[in-house]
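quick one before i forget lol
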Amino acid sequence: MNQSDFMLKAVSLAMKGKGRTAPNPCVGAVIAAGNEIVGQGFHRACGENHAEVEAINHAILRGYDLSQCVLYVTLEPCNHFGKTPPCTQAILKAGIRHVVIGALDPNPHVSGGGADFLARSGVHVQSGIEEQKCQDLIADFVVWNRTDRAYLYLKMASTLDGRIATSKGHSQWVTSDVSRKSVHELRSKVGAVIVGGNTFYQDNPRLTCRDSGAAFQPLAIIVTSRLPEPDMHYYLLTDRPRETIFWTDQQTAQGNTAGKLKELGCEVIGLDRKGTGLDLAQGLSLLRQKNIYHALCEGGGLLGLSFLRAKLADELWYYMAMKILGDNQAKPVFDGNTPQTMDEALSARLAETRIMGNDILLKLFLS
């Protein structure tokens, strides 16, 4: 194993804490003796041990002399007291003399502080190993530090020719069981799932995470200018009214139907207008005020594009089924733009490709 291999192992460990460490970043660490990993750990939840401490404790429990080992950690060790003591102190106390860091802390007030402190204390410090993957790990942490809103995953699924339903509206199912299980796992890591009004009315969704062992269910949020009557037989109204929120315009939020939905237990929030739509950033900021740090938008195409155009979609999970409809009238995965040249296209950076049964999952970061 080389340095890249060890850091990628730390990255995979860090992902186990994704969605559970907020407002802390997810971090992974491994301790290597030669070509062998002798200790490993990750940050499990806010207030619990950081990854470095978990890995150190693991290696010590196994009886290794850490002065002869190398610590690989995805994020610069902290050098300040928070809910736990500084990881730099734990590293020195353990006798570790060589630390490899994936990414420096993005917080400008502490960036480089932990690395500099370790170097001044006689530790050999390296940085920048698998840096992009380590930075992708903490993309949510960067958003929380620079904005007042929740981090947004945008999930879309289509056929190979970019269609999400037939011209008659039939959409079950575009993707495989494997892909749908993956979506439920993603739902288990967020505090809210967002869909548009068309999806609500046409699909009657539950927006729950099933078969993922989730301890709680995310809030269901519907973005719509047309509120349903409370006696309509939609799952969210009959089975999850107290976990359901409608984002609509200010006037609709003050109407009679809104009042009836509130009596049912739903929350109806009036957002300000922005351009031809709603101020979606305002909605994501309201989620953050509820201590919801991650949200997932599952479309449809108009709402997904609205988040993209507003630069509010941080991470796109695009499931592509190996199916072709070949119908120009079938419903497209994104809809609402009228670009005249390719220069007007929205761009993204491909971070990961994964085979999901007979589908392909593309994980992209928006630029």
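fyi The chain has a mean pLDDT of 93.
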